[in-house]
Amino acid sequence: MKKRNKLVLFLLALPAMVFAQELKMDSPIPLDPTVRTGKLKNGLTYYIKNNKKPENKVDLRLIVNAGSILENDDQQGLAHFMEHMCFNGTKRFPKNTLVDYLQSIGVKFGQHLNAYTSFDETVYFLPIPSDDNEKLTKGFEILEDWAFNTVLTPEEIDKERGVVLEEYRIGLGADKRMMGQFMPKMMYNSMYAKRLPIGQKEILENFTHDKVLNFYKDWYRPNLMSVIAIGDIDVDQIEKMIIKHFSPYKNPKKEKPRKVFDVPNHKETFVAIESDKEAAFSQVQLLYKDYEEPKLVKTVGDYRQELVKNLFSTMLNNRLNEIANNPNPPYTFGNSYYGSTYARTKNAFQSFAMVGEDKQLEALKVLVTENERVKAFGFTQGELDRAKTSMLTSMERRYNERDKTESNRYMNSFQRNFLIDQPAPSIEWTFETSKKLLPTITLQETNSLIANYIKDDNRVVILTGPEKEGLVKPTEQQTLAAIAIDPSSLKPYEDSVLAESLLRNPIKKGSIVKKETNDKIGTTTLTLSNGAKVTYKKTDFKNDEILFEAMSFGGSNLISNDEYEKVQWAMNGLTEAGISGMKLNDLNKFMTGKVARVNPYVGSFSEGMNGSAAPKDYEYLMQMIHAYFTDLNFDQEAFDSYKAKENSFMANMASMPSMYFQKELYSYLLKENPRFFGVLPDEKAWAKTDYQLAYNKYKERFANAGDFHFFFVGNIDEQKLEEYSSLYLASLPANETKEKAVDLGYRMLKGEHKKIVNKGKDPKSSVNIMYYGDCVYDAKEALSFRALGEVLTIKLVEELRENESGVYGVNARGSMSKVPNGSYNFSINFPCGPENAETLTQSALRELNKIIENGPEEKDINKFKEAEKLDYKEKIKQNNYWMSNLTRAYTNATSAEEILQFEQKIDAVTAKDIQAVAKKYLTKDKVVAMLMPEE
Q: Are 732 and 626 in contact (CB under 8 A)?
């Protein structure tokens, strides 16, 4: 490892010695030359970039540099309300015809078509097909109407109140209550503490229509807007469309100034200690706020300083991660970074930790201690070398994928360029410049940052967590004492010696005994000398990606009920021990700069592994697979650390009404299942956990590689795959046993049931309608069942959201499974007000019954089909889609070639098919479950 990293850095340093002289630190950072940008006479800015992935699709985005921070006192919540209104009727698309049209061309509301409102901006997303000029034109008409022609009728405004209030209701709870307490300290004396985007309930209920109209007129204007178009497009054509659709509009003659709001400094250290009976997690936040506004990153020298800051954060977080992996960790997760706050005008050095309910002060002290350790002693050269290698590896991956990067991945860069003048260089410039600059960065530079970050004033400490009997809240005095660290008591960080290899035991190479190809889907299947099978598909979808999965039937269903109770919660913690004698921290250091990961699992009816690698690190992936089969460490200390973290993380999750609801519902539905031991483990469950038994069961499940099928999809070097398969997979221990997926016969309660769970003090409810049972699996029925869920969702949104204004979101989903037993599951879910739960449940069932009695409307089936085919055209060129297809075919014992007939199968779905499965499966028993507030 050391040799490799030093070699990488030495090779980087050679050209850097030359090129660093060529790079002038005062040179401006260039905008990506592949993007065309311009500004119309009215001030609207646009960015256009041709990008071929995905094909025949363009991502459009309308950005308005205005959010809740600009609201008047009597407009709180109306920036977000305005975002909603843009979907409820425009000049060209009255009422709900906008969503209806987009669904007809395959664009799903919520999944594809969406928007958000924040403090400082409102952003609209519109991905559409780009291979049809009519659809492209419609897309720009929609953007234009959103920007300038939304119809704000009193009727539609009043209808939308209910929907927005339901979204407001969803956000109620412990986190919102505690945030309301600490925000005035975090964002002291600023508008950001008073302008949360969701707004005030009383205003949303009572504002007069002119208030939202005024917000639209004041802030939706060309000189506060940007249009971004990235995709498989003709740039000249798109530029003409932008000019045509947006040039005619003018800014108001008496336009309001677009103010920038600051966050005043303060001499005090503010401490907020907040608790709530419904809080699920304990957290610690520490902010050292800058005195000055952030300096714009404009030049090469500025970019170099950003690299220094990123290296600093990487090294500090590596230390914090090591502490989390140690015995008796003070936190489940810890992180520190320098960056923005809620305000554009205020940056801060920030530390955060998820902690056990009684470890807030301990975790806070550790975070501060590690800051002070860096301040006193700095980092080591080994840490800096690893950070540079890690950073360069990440950039290199992006560079390698520069011609295979999806359009939406570029959007945020240009959006930030418009909103905050952040540079948006090309990945070529970023990678090449970073290669030249990284070797010139010294320890002295990274070590010196901390002195400017840490201060005794202008800082905020925030502790949030559960409130319950027996748990003592820290005091402000104790909190201040925890951050008062004596530097003289500290010792320097000690870097550990790095391992030389992922494997420590000799390997006896096997061989390939059979090779078969499937030209229709481009796969090759190898049979290895130990009986294992390897199927791979070489693709060019990504340059720097190989996906991996291994499967074998068996799983935890082969473990007795008594033993399952002892191992259920332990299985996910086994890998915390590391492999090949390396502890987890040592393994993480060894893998610095290497892109390969493997995750073993034991499911209910199968066991397996999944992971991925860059082609250059494919051998490391294969070595990790071999090690997880043959040389998983047994480390009681590491497991105890995992158990402590999990217990502290989950201890109060049932305090959350939504989680308590799931706990109570499934405890009821599965009360006759002897293998159901709860949704969440409690202290009694952890006390019963047997780590040694879980380890032994893992070894049993992975003792026979001959019963496994290995799948690889991506940019594969076939010669290397065959070589590594012979060396690392064919050498795995195996026998002749072939296991099958076992159905234990345990089921949820049969019959008609209604379960009401009372939890939570907020006026919010949740409804879950469920149909489930055994069936003989049929692929055609399964597709129709899924179509039923999508079509019903369309009708439920129309009725429950648009007509009744009773919900913010609603979803119906149907699925069927073949293994380990034929089964169906259909659910309808929505949050709502308690006073409307019964009425909306009946409305949902009425919509379902309309389909049962009359069948679905043809227009809704066509929406489903268009969306499915649009998704398919994109997914068929994605590695993970092919991997899912191969593993699903293995699980269901079907042909992987069926992926090629997908569009034909979608086209073949009829209204009669959907009505038939609705009648067959959804006229039987059902479960209606409701979460209601405490009485």
A: yes
